[in-house]
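One-letter codes give the sequence; the integers encode the fold. A sample entry reads:
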Amino acid sequence: MSAFDTPDAQTCGTILTIDLGALVANWRDLQARAGTEAAAVVKANAYGLGIEPTVTALAAAGCRSFFVAHLSEGVRARQVAPDATIYILNGLLPGSGGSYAAHDLSPVLGSVEEVREWAAFHASGANLRPAALHVDTGMNRLGLSVGEGLALAHETNSTLAAAGIGLVMSHFSSSEDEADPANTRQMAAFAALVAALPGIPASLKNSSGHFLNACPSYQLTRPGYALYGGNPTPGQPNPMRPVVGLTSRILQLREVEAGTPVGYNGRWTARRRSRLATICLGYADGYPRNASGTDSSAGGSAIVGGVMCPFVGTVSMDLVILDVTDAPATSAKRGDPVTLIGGALDLEAVGAGAKTIGYEILTSLGRRHARRYVGV
């Protein structure tokens, strides 16, 4: 049993299995593919898997740089990776320099105002790690414009030098679609900026960027979703190893006649005599309500005895109903396990069944699952 495990399924009802060995293998595969250093994006509680066990496993495997979204996430990562470089993607909130210094963290500076504030704080003599400069090349979300970045690069008395910039980065908007012309535009814009900042390491590749043939690796890549088993090449076979499995148990079974309404507001109606199983899972466990199965729209599924069984009725807070009519009766009894993520139900399939994406499935995984960390 891992030190990060939580109470058993007898008290939690569902088991979330996290294969840290597969996670490390995915990181190594991406680093080898890039041919340069790969960081790890561990924001959103390591995409739902847990910052502490994820960072511990990756750091032990040799990962030296991590990216999180919030300062509070950086503090958690620092506790288990005392020597790593930890970047905070959401930037420098006003007056937060002292917290960065106290926890040895690096802001990703996304505006001229942030750069100048960090430069002033840097001048105070605090012992700081290098910051990153985020330049927007097409996302229009966070980051300096390319023009602002070039203007800072060409300053006679360099604000960037005063700010101790140790990395320049940008973020793809469409890298999962190799045919999207936005990728070429972003790569060209970023190359111009990198050329204006000689000697400063650069980072552009996200998970899907590792599979863009024309994309330079530069000095650092930033995989996220692919580390956790998500498919960085939608529509093609997933090159990554699965990392997450989710199982629940059958709480109760019942037979209903054709024409019987099921679940809140009776949004699903049995079209035949059906055997239904209620399982211990709901939207309070991070499984989207959009996975509901209704008369007009199919929803999520679970695997029972090797058979794909659809969700029927509305996903409620704590419970989901399955149609297990076609599953073997010997595998659909009270207490029997059902698979929600695993096998044919990979993250993309689960996301599609819930009318969302695998990213949301991962990052929404709730606190009530019994977590089992394996592979380490």
